[in-house]
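ok so i was messing around last nite and threw this chain in just to see what happens. nothing serious, just curious
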Amino acid sequence: MGLFDFLKKATEPAIPEAVRTTGGPGVVHAPATGRVEPMASLPDPVFAGGAMGLATGVWPERGVAFAPISGTLTIAMPHAFGIVNDEMEVLVHVGVDTVEMNGEGFEVLVEKGQQIEAGSPLVTFDRDKVAAAGYPDVVITIVMSTADVEARGGSASACAEKHIEAGAPLMRVEG
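result:
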């Protein structure tokens, strides 16, 4: 350990602590704290139109996104995370068109194939870099399995809250 190593460690980003989740089976938790954006108002026509499933956005107050459900990570990219469990498949998409940033400003905290608990941190991201690149930083959560749920007589619904805390119920899947 060198004389100035403590300075380097002090500037390294700390991994955020997991957030507490509330709700029971079928709950999709908010991936961030912030203002809720209903599906029809999302700034991306694919998500807003429901082409991928029921979607809800959260305009984050800080640059971290948390797992909305427990399960296995099927996708772990800087801007997008897929999680699947026995009830549903969910995609968390950080920002709109942020794939164009090629990971710059994002620090992935998980790996594909990893088992993860709801409320665990997935990624930290620099909101200023996202804004400087000209992209909205809304964190969008999509229930990818919405059509499957509805085909078996179930339903998926979004919360009506205007502001939400990370880990609180954002959407619910029944059936």
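not much to say yet. The chain has one domain: 24-174.
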